[in-house]
Amino acid sequence: MIYRHAHFIVATITTAILIVAITDAHKPITSKYTYHQDVYPIFLNQCGGCHSADAVAPMSLLTYEDAYPWAQSIKEEVVNLTMPPWQAEYGFGAFKHEGSLTARQLDIVVEWANGGTPEGITTNHDPGEPKNTWSLGEPTFILEMPEPFSLPADVSEATRHFVMPAAFDGETMIRAVDFRPGTAAIVRSAILYVDLSGEAAALDAADPAPGFDAENPNSLAGAQILTAWLPGQEAIGLDQAGYVVPVGADLVLRLNYKKTWTYEGLEVDDQSLLALYAADPGVARVESIVLQPPTENGSNEGPLVSFSSHLSRDLDLLAILPNLEADALGVQIEAVAINGERTPVIRLASPRPEWRTRYWLDEPLRLTQGTTLEVQAILRSGSAEGNVPVSFTLDLLPVQIPTAEPN
Amino acid sequence: MMQLNVLTALIGSAVVAVAAFPANLTLEVSESGTFEIQDVVKESPRYQFRFSDLGASSSAQANLPQPVIPSLVRSADDPLVDESNLPPFSFTCPMHPEIHETHNVPCPICNMNLVETRRAEAWTCPIHSVILEGEDGVCPIGGRPLMPIRLELTWTCSDHPEVTSSEPGICPIDRQQKLVQRLNSLPHEDHSPKHGGTFFMAPDNWHHLEGTYPDPGRFVLYLYDNYSQPMNTGVATGRAVLRETYNVSLDSMVEDIAYPLTVGPEGRFFEVHIGEQELPTAVTAKIRFEPGAVEERFDFIFNSITDNPADPTSLTPRSVGLGGTQASLPPAAATTGTLLVNIPEEPNEIATELAIRNATVQNLVRDGGFTEIWIPALEAKDLALALTPHLDLLAPDQQLLVRLAVKELVRAAWLLDWHGDLGNRQRVEAAYAIFGQAADIITATYDRQ
Question: pTM of this prediction?
Fold first, then answer.
């Protein structure tokens, strides 16, 4: 005679609010896709940059045990297109390293999450390349934060600037920047910019701790941005072109820290690393131009913001860095040629202002003289607030006009 | 190339808002000492009465119609699971049966210690849930391919159902009898209606409910828990809304005709007299499962008086206008099952089949057959995916358009499957807006080939 017993003490719980998504793991297994065989490759390639152990997302998706309890959340986020958080709409312009799921990938993930999350044949997946190599190869310069920065135990979110020690001999052309966070779990974004004013160095000297705090330092406005990194991104390099770092300029690293729940209440150190790749001195120089609404007539009224800019030269568009001060339902840029032909450049649906990154065009887009760049944005109501709500920093190369051969 | 209006395109994906987080669940568990496992598994704070297996003697229980298959006892000479090769023990949380671990770790949701359980694989028919086989095959009643499910495996005595054991053996009460296998369904195994009505799951993934129109003018609503076991109305409240109209000055829907739901005898169901209605009639139940919880909406359409629920396993015609190609469809099921659609060779034939499914879905949305939408919707998305390898036969701008439409159709099909099961007309219609537009784009492109 055997009665099953469970010896445990049931504690008194008066109210337990369950915000965690309740999983569908108890459903019958009806998915023909399994985690190890079908879903893992998608999670690795499309999600693993953020959703791996000790990375910036609240959970890893790279083991079955970590992934399956989140089935309901995974299903919701994927079906609603909020995850992966690639914000440029597929098909409106073409970009390098596009991060959206294809139709089939979406189908596989949702069917798996909806159909009982079967594990499949247990496989030890190869973790991939070791993390100590740089994806663009051996860098020209490696810049490390001079000292580790400690995010105090009682602070869960902070933006901090660090002047990076860069002893360049004279003007330097930089064709690529790669970033490796010290403590990946807390670094949400990284921007490296060029400061010609000396303001950053002064603020840094004035602050006893490593770096300095400033929500929007003057030195950042209008500065040449060398990289706008988000977790999971691979570095992209310019071809036969470079960003100019003038003599005497400071390189300032702006880091956005935010703790995940496992680090809440703990003091966390970070000492992040940058890899810079120099270009040959004679390469084409990238011009960064800001596309923004005219400020005089206060055209920031109402939810619809539209403005345009007329190009007076032939330019190749390489990359777009959106600057969103306001919460928008959507923003887009179209290039309108002289003959009226419209070319889609970029469209962001429900972009998140804090997730700011550079979108590299798959191929440079030739914009001929006389082209108008038209920007339209629909803001969520009440969000204009007097700041310039929407602007874009465009990385452009002037088109080299071959000089006539002398006879 | 069809240009989507800027406004529509920009707000399109942002608008399908799905607030599918579960309603707050309140757990009240009393402090106690050692429990028999049966007590813990069966008694949960939500049960207003003690609840045990078929054949139990509780008087409240005896009056309830028996659910279809919460638990199935096999005879001694017909076990489901081979006893020389039993599945190993695993661990589950008595409060959160979806948690299933190989070791006794604290429950990741509520931190309680887990309890031992054995899970067995079996095969069942999506329609006839009494069928339970140890192997893949077809249903002996309808011939439909069986689908795999997981069940909890315990042992009991056929004459003494209060006995529960985690091992095979001899009945402790009547030592002449060998213990027989009993298989208990796990939550969400069973979405079939028990009273011939329409069965929905609530967005909290825990409550279930079934709406019926058993007599002219009488709306009856049954509540179920996460095991799809009937439960008392308890602290739930709600109303039946027959008509809502849009009020311009308030910029919201206003209920014109609504009746509070009254509690039936012994709390076994809600009922309300809505006046004899011309059929088909639409009744929206707005329910708050707990005081202070979000009010959830469930849209029922009755095309006829609901059939007598005396035989819950019968395929009672649910009389929902189908307009589709299926002769008979299974009742509420939230999963794809072993759905297989025949994919034609030629892309324009695939597009034609897709158009047929779109028409079926459109009719089901119109007629309120929400719980059947999943079949043509998921068939349509498989057809759409099957077009992908043929896309290079199209002109480049058409390729892009169809590729975008395929992705929108796939995600909208899953939204329809999800919201169809929740019975929320507004969300179903919002999902169909995406699905229908995508299907039309694909069909129109291939019509021009």
Answer: 0.65
